[in-house]
Amino acid sequence: MTLTAVALNCTLNPTPAESSTELLAQQVLDALAEHHVTGSMVRVVDHDVRPGVDLDMGEGDAWPGIREQVMASDILVLATPTWLGQHSSVCQRVLERLDAELSEKDDEGRLQTYGKVAVVVVVGNEDGAHHVSAVCFQALNDVGFTIPAGGVTYWNGEAMHGTDFKDLPETPDAVASTTKTLAANAAHLAGLLAANAYPPSADG
């Protein structure tokens, strides 16, 4: 079975700036590739994603094109840095735009995101990854995505320190192991859901 993934990199830094978030998100895509999942990356800040909760916020809005990539994929990798102990404003914009999926249903009343798996990537130089992943998990589940066991990988530098993930000489073993587990579980779950759809909605 051929599966696909798209990573939405919610760094605040536009291309060509280096991005720790992109580095760890790419490691997730590389780990997914070991399970025959083809992946791509979108740096959201490079695109004019308008504020709002509709599928299309009008002329110039880049979200409809990004949404097409999300809807064409089996796995969404939502990757965010941590700022002030929170997910980035770009990540919040993505979550707000995904709110429109609550109105998009198939002929059997299921959200069109049903059957799609979502995982989260968090980087930062302070603690907060558990809080950020909890917020993202709840939002993603609200709009129809399924979260696998071990659905987050993250790196936090020690408190009061300025080292970024991209500046480490190598990826810590614990992060690499967690990323591999995330990829294995996400690919497994996506395969199961692709072969066995959720039942029709009771209120469909």
Automatic annotation (TrEMBL):
InterPro entries: Flavoprotein-like_sf, FMN_Rdtase-like_dom
Domain of life: Bacteria
Signal peptide: none
Domain NADPH-dependent FMN reductase-like: 6-150
Protein name (database record): Flavodoxin family protein
